[in-house]
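Hey team,

Filing this mostly as a record. A colleague (T.K.) asked me to run one chain through the structure pipeline before their review meeting, and I want the input and output archived in the tracker in case anyone asks later how it was produced. No errors, nothing strange. Just documentation.

Input sequence:
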Amino acid sequence: MRVTVLMGGWSAEREVSLVSGKGIAEAARTLGHSVTELDMGATAADGASFPARLAATKPDVVFNALHGTPGEDGTVQGCMDLMGLRYTHSGVTTSAIAIDKELTKKILVPAGVRMPGGRIVTSESLHEGDPLPRPYVLKPVNEGSSVGVAIVTDSSNYGNPISRTAPGPWADYPELLAEPFIAGLELTVAVLEGETGTAEPLAVTELKPLSGFYNYEAKYTDGKTVHVCPAEIPAEVTAMALEQAALAHRVLGCRGVSRADFRYDPAQGKDGLYLLEVNTQPGMTPLSLVPEQAKARGLSYEALVGRLIARALVGEFSETGALA
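Output structure:
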């Protein structure tokens, strides 16, 4: 088949997307497909020519390897829907919901997914006082890969209240999501659709940064984080994480593959497990967690790419991204 691997873009995760895309393209060629690598562009101005450049590749299927806006928020998905193209990963509505952390909570919490509380605050208000008792976490509502995350503690050098001169996400985003800080472990679960469309959680991985927290640098710099797969946690917590990840995948209407990120406080037992967010376009780099968990389940990188391409070609999809 003709497979166009869509990568790059102008989000903060551009470089990660390019690495993901290169690996996917190589795997698709190994599987025997005719592959075109298409960089969406480095600036928003490049988006004007994107539909024509994509159409010119005449793809049977588009492998969406973009991360962040506009490749993960429903924008590119809507464009490809209008063009009548088949593509991997989630559809328009699912993508638009999942990239918005606050909107994701409004959908998942009533369905029985445990998530931390919190609220949207203006960055300006942070310089007047804390929105939550310290320690708490501040993060952009619509970014991935821990871009712009700050943990505010009593001993932090941000000041109290947060100083206007202190570097942090408040300088770049007019609004932020404030959440209570959950002590403990960083966990993640990949959910992969099988041949029948059934959402199957693969494994639970614990992420142990060698310093600080699991930020962008820790995620994508070799040697900065230890991956423990399967995570060395109680069996009942493992079962709960797998179930919650699969539930979130189904409720949001994710397609192909997703990855759910958790925090787990062992001092609270099962009540200490909280889902933080769902990634509808998880990374496919050599350090990425979805390929790692797939390998742990006996699925090679090439087989994983093949599975996602195959899922993009099966059935008609509703606007939520779920199989109709």
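Quick notes for T.K.: The chain has nine helices and twelve strands. The chain has a mean pLDDT of 91.
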